[in-house]
Each structure stands twice: as structure tokens, then as C-alpha cells.
Amino acid sequence: MKELTAMAPPAATVRVVAPPERKYLVWIGGSVLASLASFGSQWVTREEYEEYGPSIVHRKCF
């Protein structure tokens, strides 16, 4: 909180909202991402990963 307050203009009020379901937000975001039609081309199969290793992720996603 100190870092945010230090970066904000002096007149700004800084508030941090932590929703109770925050521990699930990563899973919810992943679910939304996986449901996008445009994301299918970036999926890595087990076979691809076993053949190319971690470099396949960079090849398909970046």
C-alpha cells in the first residue's frame, strides 16, 4: 500500500479492493481465456511438448 500511495498524486485517495472470491480469479480468468476461439491456436499438446520441450510455448505463444 505504501508503494501505491507514493506513486499516486498527493490529492489522490488510494483504495485497494480485495473481493472475497479473489482466490478463484486466476481460475476464472483461465476459463475465460480457454473459451476464446482465438486462443485454440496457442494450445500445446502433450505430444508437442514432449517433442519440442518448453521452446514450443515460445514458438506458439509469442
From TrEMBL:
- Membrane-traversing stretches: none
Protein name (database record): Actin, cytoskeletal 3
Q: Which family does it belong to?
A: Belongs to the actin family.
Q: Identify the Gene3D superfamilies for this entry.
A: 3.30.420.40
The organism of origin for this protein: Tetrabaena socialis
Q: Pfam families recorded for this chain? A: Actin
InterPro entries of this UniProt entry?
A: Actin, Actin_CS, ATPase_NBD
